[in-house]
Write a structure and sequence with these properties.
Blueprint (H helix, E strand, L loop, with lengths): L1 E8 L4 H9 L8 E7 L4 E7 L5 H5 L10 E7 L6 E5 L2 E11 L2 H10 L15 H9 L5 H11 L2 E9 L2 E5 L9 E5 L5 E5 L11 E5 L5 E4 L4 E5 L7 E2 L1 H6 L5 E2 L2 E2 H19 L7 E4 L4 H12 L7 E3 L13 H11 E3 L8 E6 L6 H12 L4 E6 L23 H10 L6 H8 L4 H14 L3 E4 L2 H8 L6 E2 L1 H4 L3
Length: 477
């Protein structure tokens, strides 16, 4: 995943760009980048942020960055921003998304005039460079963006600095959000951001939310739609439940409030199904499980508590290293137990989702070692059965690595899953579904385990169901 931020001001923009980009740090841990345009030249900085926060890597760059137009990004994949010299002039680009047909696009461009692409360290071609190459095939940036969107199988939201402003383009089906905000005053202007929370403290106020496929051109003085939005939308639902920052709004829905509703819905489903349990406390798995747990506690009238507290001074972000053994160690080091809230207590623990389940099993084992009497699990979304092919939100390193698919393999035997059978496990309440959930419960060492139903989850979001992507749960686009 990743986050993008840009702005056009009547004054120096580097400081606002720095903080606006930094407010996307929860969306990625590998690289950060900023580029500022002074009317003649771009000044760019890109740093690895795997072992230290964005702020510490970029604060020394601020004094060298002068200009009124800037774009920045947090990325889990490609070094960005990319700057290229094209027939339209010099342009800079940042993107967030996924290109599934990258090799087909590369072959097409090379056969039609592109002589080479820069290969990144470790192999592969930079997605953002590829997007910039597609855009430069046309005679102007708006046509280039439309062409790029039409060629890409997957999802791609982008900011393009060109023509004395910024072109902000939301992906074709609106899988990721993009908002524009305005700061008034003689030193003000416009900013554009994936997370609407990124500009609140900078003094900007939301004035427009881009629709699917919409392209807006920004200068310090104006905001103009140059490509109209389409009606069809498939916004990523997982963004609401896990990755999204609590103070952000997507499609007019606040993330924190939505998570409260989600927890309330889970408690109501437990009561209706007769699966409610008597416990001493409801608790969330920090961080994003916590608001779901608050909603559950409010609805069930069971006290909310924090038996596990995240040590935020040195573990401020949610993402983990790719090495599983290191991930497991960090998961344990992040959370410090409160003995009096655990020993001899019955706990209902709420998590936003379960992907592999390795870290959650480790947490359960730790709680039992601290003397927990009972552990009950509730999950804010249904079992994840399909790898995300649009934004990498739920994608695993190897096929069938999720705990849900591993459990299906265990139930059916053999080394391959019959994909025709997966839909039966995805249907809430079926015999196959219940068998899968029961075996996952045993694997996680829980007394009971219940997942939120798909309908209950979608109702919690509060926008039309047809506008939400549910692929990772039911394989439907």
């Amino acid at each position: 995943m990743g986050g993008i931020f840009g702005l056009c001001l009547h004054d120096e923009c580097a400081t606002d760009l720095f903080f606006g980009t930094d407010y996307h740090s929860h969306l990625g841990t590998r690289r950060g980048g900023m580029a500022v345009f002074d009317g003649k030249h771009y000044n760019r900085a890109i740093h690895n942020i795997e072992n230290s926060p964005f702020r510490t890597k970029f604060e020394d760059d601020l004094s060298e960055m002068h200009g009124f137009i800037g774009i920045g990004c947090i990325s889990d994949s490609n070094p960005q921003p990319v700057i290229i010299d094209s027939k339209m002039g010099v342009l800079a680009a940042v993107t967030v998304g996924r290109i599934n047909n990258k090799q087909d696009i590369v072959r097409h461009l090379m056969s039609d005039g592109n002589s080479y692409f820069t290969e990144m360290s470790g192999g592969g071609i930079n997605d953002t460079e590829l997007v910039a190459a597609l855009i430069s095939r046309k005679d102007n940036v708006p046509d280039g963006i439309r062409y790029a969107q039409s060629q890409i199988d997957g999802s791609m939201t982008m900011l393009i600095s060109a023509d004395g402003g910024i072109y902000a383009a939301r992906d074709r089906l609106g899988r990721t959000p993009l908002s524009i905000a305005k700061k008034d005053g003689e030193k003000g202007g416009y900013c554009v951001s994936l997370e609407s929370s990124a500009y609140i403290n900078l003094g900007y106020k939301t004035c427009h939310t881009l629709g699917p496929g919409e392209v807006v051109f920004l200068t310090p003085d104006k905001m103009e739609t140059v490509v109209a939005p389409s009606k069809e939308m498939r916004m990523c639902t997982f963004l609401f439940f896990f990755y999204g920052f609590p103070t952000s709004d997507y499609e007019g829905v606040n993330v924190e409030e939505m998570r409260y509703r989600c927890g309330k819905s889970m408690a109501a489903e437990d009561k209706q199904a007769g699966s409610a349990v008597e416990v001493d406390f409801v608790a969330g798995i920090p961080d994003s499980g916590t608001p779901h747990a608050i909603g559950y506690a409010n609805e069930s009238k069971i006290p909310f508590a924090r038996p596990l507290v995240k040590y935020t001074p040195t573990w401020p972000r949610s993402f983990m290293p790719r090495d599983q053994s290191v991930r497991n160690l960090i998961a344990r080091m992040k959370l410090i137990p409160v003995d009096s809230l655990i020993h001899n207590k019955r706990l209902l623990l709420v998590d936003d989702s379960i992907v592999r389940g390795t870290q959650l099993r480790g947490i359960m084992d730790e709680l039992l070692s601290y003397g927990a009497k009972e552990l009950h699990g509730r999950v804010a979304c249904p079992p994840i059965l399909y790898d995300c092919k649009y934004l990498n939100f739920t994608r695993t390193a190897r096929e069938n690595e999720t705990i849900s698919r591993q459990t299906i393999l265990d139930l059916e035997g053999g080394s391959q899953i019959n994909e025709n059978h997966v839909c039966q496990y995805a249907q809430f309440g079926t015999k196959q579904y219940r068998n899968m959930v029961e075996l996952i419960r045993k694997k996680l060492n829980l007394s009971t385990l219940e997942y939120h139903s798909l309908d209950g989850m979608l109702d919690s979001v509060g926008i039309e169901k047809c506008k939400l992507c549910t692929y990772c749960w039911n394989g439907k686009e």
